[in-house]
From TrEMBL:
Protein name stated in the entry: DUF1080 domain-containing protein
Source taxonomy: Bacteria, Pseudomonadati, Bacteroidota, Flavobacteriia, Flavobacteriales
Any one Gene Ontology molecular-function term assigned to this protein's record: hydrolase activity
Residues covered by the 3-keto-alpha-glucoside-1,2-lyase/3-keto-2-hydroxy-glucal hydratase domain: 23-253
């Protein structure tokens, strides 16, 4: 038994070492939320209300077992530093938790925000960060397509097919996935020029020129929302908006 465990641990160390040599950095250590910052609507930065974000069995959970009601507590868990051009990989799946008083669209819905404003600049009563979102969805009704890896734009705008797209969310070309299925996701970002979304290794969406603009975000500091400002970098954050979800294998490789 001990030799098997030792062999497994050595294999894991070797795999991690090889990834590091190839330029990959693990953002989540699999043990705790070190290097991550919480911001939840109605709460100050750093207040992880009701232990919303937690680590269990090697995954980051969005967990609502400490809530009596959701009360619009849209939350985000930010990695401690911003990135500009990079390749991000992560895996997610939903849980069977969903807060009944959350908006209906949040059912089997979450996301990863990127090019986000600094969490330190987000006001207590600001609902979402000014950011771009890799939106994650799962099947809601049988026979009704519901792609994942979509783009949403709280306080931002993007160009799609060469033109500014007025939609808040743009659907990807992905298949519909089940709620409890681990989905491999990738986000490839080249500063303020090109963004590519992948699902299970397949490109499903591409757009350009992410910039500040549009609506949806409320309660922000107007000095931060400079419409038309191109987004060359920003923070990465995991979303919590009433639906339980788990994340793992979060790693990044910086690009030139």
């Amino acid at each position: 038994m001990s030799s098997c465990l030792s062999s497994k641990n050595n294999s894991e160390k070797t795999d991690t070492s090889l990834e590091s040599q190839k330029g990959w950095q693990h953002l989540f250590n699999g043990k705790d939320l070190k290097d991550w910052i919480v911001k939840i609507h109605h709460h100050d930065v750093g207040d992880n209300y009701a232990d919303t974000f937690r680590v269990k069995d090697g995954v980051i959970q969005v967990n609502y077992d400490g809530y009596e009601k959701f009360d619009q507590r849209y939350g985000h868990l930010y990695y401690k530093e911003p990135f500009s051009s990079y390749h991000l990989k992560f895996k997610y799946r939903f849980t069977d938790q969903w807060m009944a008083d959350a908006p209906g669209y949040t059912y089997r819905n979450s996301g990863v925000m990127f090019h986000s404003q600094d969490p330190a600049t987000i006001l207590k009563e600001q609902d979402w960060p000014i950011s771009v979102e890799y939106q994650m969805l799962a099947r809601e009704k049988d026979g009704v397509p519901r792609p994942t890896g979509n783009m949403c734009s709280p306080g931002t705008e993007v160009y799609f097919h060469g033109e500014m797209d007025p939609r808040h969310c743009i659907d990807s070309s992905s298949e519909t996935h089940e709620w409890d299925e681990w989905v491999s996701s990738e986000l490839i970002v080249y500063g303020d020029s090109l963004v590519i979304h992948k699902v299970n290794g397949k490109k499903v969406l591409e757009y350009t020129k992410p910039q500040i603009g549009g609506g949806v975000v409320n309660g922000y500091d107007p000095k931060i929302k400079v419409d038309g400002k191109r987004l060359t970098e920003g923070f990465i954050a995991l979303q919590a908006e009433g639906q339980g979800v788990e994340f793992k294998d979060i790693k990044i490789k910086k690009l030139n």
